[in-house]
Amino acid sequence: MKNWKITSVVLPAILLVVVNIYLTLREDSEVQRTVYVEKWKKAEQGNITESFNAKAVIKPSEEHYVYFNEEDKDFDQFLVQEGDAVSAGTPLFEYSSPRLEAEKRELEAEKKAAEGEITSIEEQIDKLESYQLSVEADQPIADTADFMDTALAENSVEEIISSIEQDIYRQEYERSRLEQKVQKYEAQIQSIEEQTGAATISSEVDGIVKQIDKDLGNPVIVIASNTPAVEGYFNERQREKASEGMEIKVSSNSLKKKLNGSIQKINPYPLEDPSVEKESSYLFSGVIEEAPDRLFSGSKVDVTVIVDKAVGVPVIPSKSVHKNQKQEYVYQLTSAGLLAKRSITTGLSFHGEHEVKKGIKPGNTVLLSDAPGSVKKAPFITPVKSLDPNLKTMKTITNREKLRYVLIGVLEK
Amino acid sequence: MIYQVQLLKGLFHPALIRYQLKQAESVKGFLPKVIFLFIISILLFAVSGLFGIGSETISKEVEALSAAELESKKQLFILGRLFAGILFAALFLFLSAMFFWLAADISYIKLVSVQMIVLCIGLFEKALLIPISVAMDINKDASPFALGVIGQHFTSNGYLIHFLGEISIFQVLMIALQYYFITNLSNKNKYLILGTVVVFYLLVWLVSAFLTYINISVIV
């Protein structure tokens, strides 16, 4: 009897509890909730940098090759040694061209010969001209008795003069021909002189002479320029993320601060033949902006490649971001005192932090602990995080306010 | 005979205790048990406050305040909760005993002894609600033991919902136990006693709901 009585009481009680729980926790519950917020964080204005690290070594960035064309030239001597520092314009080596010299001498000889001929022609012309003059002067004044003889004599004098003149013209023509030849020789000599004028080759860049080939195999001189650079290897994952032009930061134990630089080149082909078993390595090289003193070729450095950067954006912990199908959202603790579901658009994320493009501003507070299932908007409570009384803050609360908060504690509202 | 205050026995073997109480001329072991109940009450309210239960008006300021400011205000809140613990036990034990003492002619101390047993159930309900509020993200209005949840589906009147939230399984049990002891101890009409007890609890619920309903900021 009594059991029946008890059951008739207990069963409805259990039923009530079950119904209440169901009504409270179901998806579209209308029951007023108060969310227990255990952890929360304010969104801050910050930066997110996605990066990865690789090991690299310092190398001179460019090598300049100097070549020597042996044809028609004789090498004289090197003017620098391996290890010398050179700057643009420093002479590197001397050479001479013997065949051209010989040609030049030939031409000069011919020119001289021609000039000699010209001189003798001019002498000849002089002689003819003076003969011409003397012939004209010698002409006597004829009397009438010897009319016939004078006429004959005049004719023969004219004939002589004209033949002299013809001779003169011929000589002058010959002279001008030779003069032209001389000019031609002069021009040729000049052009040869221009070719043989550069007897030294100078450096085009600043740097250090890295290598000299004493056997004159080309390139005869290799100059390493002063701008330092880094070289290293990326593995496959890093290769995917990196691209030429990306900002890098170089650091090492001997450097006081990190150096800025950028990736100059990434080899599209791996170092070794591609193989399924082995991890592929891709050579990359980058330049450094400022050349510090204590960085030697060959020193090992760490390179941080900055894949992407978001500067001065609202940053929230990744744990506070939830995703429902396509839409990302957070739970914001609003200034109205409600926990509200807020849709957001995120950007870059790295290392447990997310950039927020839309929806949350710096200073907004987001829920960090677990999301309360079906709640869209509700008041919330927060546990006491510290019982350590902060006297400084307590002083800022007026006595009237203090009373108010104590009363809230008494009446639980 | 002397009645030894025994709380657990009073809960699980009420018949025995009822008999003892009726027969007893004096009550022993009263003070330690009273102090014990006060301590339990204070502890429960403190723990409830540490979880922030009931701190909606303070927690609401989390966006505007610094961490130090928020915690300081919550510390004041805890202080209030401690007071509430004391008040709760004191009122439940002594004020209600006085009410019944006026209604039924039983010795005051015997009535307080009864209240002590009944208080245990009240404290148990409060203790149960702490983990439930935290785990289910609810407040007292949505207690699974009470009528608040159902009430929320029928009305939007805040006060009414608070009131319905006060009526819980445990409260009914307390009424039953209260009635059980007092009718036996008194020689008044049992329906009168029942009416008195019910009226008392109704008053308690009405006042309690009212206190939840008002906004402290308006007053202070």
From TrEMBL, chain A:
Major site of localization recorded for this protein: other
Record's keyword annotation contains Transmembrane: yes
Residue ranges crossing the lipid bilayer per the database entry: 6-25
One family name in Pfam for this protein: BSH_YknX
Domain YknX-like barrel-sandwich hybrid intervals: 65-216
Gene3D superfamilies: 2.40.420.20, 2.40.50.100, Helix hairpin bin
Parts forming coiled coils: 97-131, 168-195
Protein location: Cell envelope
Superkingdom field: Bacteria
Key words of the record: Coiled coil, Membrane, Transmembrane, Transmembrane helix
GO cellular component: cell envelope
InterPro entries with a match to the protein in the record: BSH_YknX-like, UPF0194_transport
Name of the featured protein: YknX-like barrel-sandwich hybrid domain-containing protein
Taxon lineage: Bacteria, Bacillati, Bacillota, Bacilli, Bacillales
TrEMBL record, chain B:
Keywords in alphabetical order: Membrane, Transmembrane, Transmembrane helix
Transmembrane intervals: 34-55, 76-104, 116-138, 159-181, 193-214
Highest rank taxon of the organism: Bacteria
Protein name in UniProt: Yip1 domain-containing protein
Native organism: Peribacillus saganii
